Amino acid sequence: MKMNHQAQIFEAMGRPEFYPHPVGDIEQRETHISHVFLTGDYVYKIKKAVNLDFLDFTTLKSRSYFCRQEVILNKRLSHHVYLDVVSINLKDGKYHLNGPGIPVEYAVKMRQLPSERSMLNMLRRKKIKKDLIRELAVILARFYDQSPSVEQIHASGAWGTVLANCQENFRQTIMFAGEILDEEIFQIVRSTTLSFLHRKKELFDNRVKSKKIRDCHGDLRTGHIYFTDEGIQIIDCIEFNERFRFQDIASDLAFLAMDLDYEGFPRIADDLLDTYAKQAQDPDVFVLIVFYKCYRAFVRCKVNCIRLHEGDLEKEHRKKLVTETRKYLDLAYKYARRFTRPTLWVVCGMPGSGKSTIAGELSRILSIRAFQSDVIRKELYGLKPEDQSDMPFETGIYSKGASALTYGRLLLSAQEEIEQGRSVILDATYGRQQYRAEAVRMANDIDANIIFVECALKENIIKERLLKRESGYPVSDARYHHYEDFRKRFEPLNELRDVMHVRVDTGKPLKECMEQILAKTSPSHGAPLETGKRKE
């Protein structure tokens, strides 16, 4: 079928008499890969006869196949919306919908959902309440849990595929840098994305090992979610390329979270992610969420560039699309700045409060080093970590001078990691405001984030743990009879701003503690992202 032949079909479908059912006004929508006709009760979607790097719709056979795939796949998250694949037939020079003649095109037939019930429109009218977001998060968590988890899918979401996808995005858009896109911002997003990928391969490998690569939606956006009387309907998944659908759950959720940021609803994005993480028991989702938000913002940027390149847009539509495209690039840039800035994690609290357990789990999840004050202290005085000593409080290697030296060496170790662009964890009591102020000052001096994770535990449980150490503990020399001295000298963390301080009850299960820490401290949780470009 020739391209101009498809154009004639589009013209015919713009007339009410073409359809075998009553039609009022016909609304047409167009993307870089499809042409959609909204007729009132039904929607008809035709795939454009285009060949892009990531899809090929140039043959009638391929368009027919992917129409069927679209119906099958979208039934996973919608009910009675995707009705059928219908043929458009040609006879005696006239086109017929499911009528006489030879099939020359195929369309997906859908039930038209009320536009006022789309998530985007409901957000703008302030009709979305927390219970709806929680319901959506539960549906998505169940969907991902039930999605296939096989080797082929895992391989499709592996680090190498993510790298290839990012490289493809930049390759397909570089021609627009300096024209539609700000070249400097484009290059910053490109370089920081690829640098992060090459430095953080282990994070992506861990997601594969934990089976978080699934057959997802692929295009999860506010415009594709409807809150209807029949329940939540999620439509328009990716059917044309498994590589874009087989992906990390974090990437799928990031598309919706990014879209919410773009539309000015970052707190709702936070609520969605928090609820999902709790429901799915997947605190690790926060580790890569900002990277994937950046990736998704750039995907939207690329899609718009392709649409603009087609060159058949009216002047006002083109102007609006250019503005939107630049806004997506600016959003990607802001995300990139967030996920590339290293973080100094200070895991602190009373001895026996579970600091080392939390620090060790953070180290595992984030794939970064953790420095323990007990180990550093003994190394400074020529001792092995397992060497034990039970001396009076604040004497010997635990004197005030020895502690000052230990905390100084901790900061130096952290600084060395951060100057290499790596985040780092310090595991120490940090019970004195002076030491905390020095950590904050150092982080500010080298432009790093700093987060204090305060481990809190009931006094009786701490005492039980310290008593157990009497029979031997590999590193820490803190004992039961030291407790009162530690308690009296521990200065509360009242001087810290909420944005850099999270207090966690370590009496709760470790996974629950990590969900709380990662949810509150994720770079996606913060001040609303501005929409104007800012160079710093």
Protein architecture, described:
It is a single chain. Helix content is 48%, strand content 16%. The chain has helices spanning 3-13, 60-74, 119-124, 130-146, 151-156, 159-173, 183-199, 201-209, 242-245, 249-263, 266-280, 289-309, 315-340, 355-366, 373-380, 400-418, 433-445, 459-468, 483-489, 510-521; strands at residues 27-30, 34-38, 42-47, 51-52, 55-56, 82-91, 94-97, 102-111, 213-215, 225-228, 231-234, 246-248, 343-349, 369-372, 424-427, 449-456, 501-505. α10 (249-263) crosses α12 (289-309) and α12 (289-309) packs antiparallel against α13. The chain folds into three domains: 3-112, 2-Layer Sandwich (Phosphorylase Kinase, domain 1); 117-340, Alpha-Beta Complex (Aminoglycoside 3'-phosphotransferase, Chain: A, domain 2); 343-521, Rossmann fold (3-Layer(aba) Sandwich). The model is unreliable at 526-536 (pLDDT under 50). The two termini are 51 Å apart. It has 536 residues and is of the alpha/beta class. It has a six-stranded antiparallel β-sheet with strand order 1-2-3-8-6-7, sandwiched between helices. Strands 14-15-13-16-17 form a five-stranded parallel β-sheet, with helices on both faces. The protein has 20 helices and 17 strands.
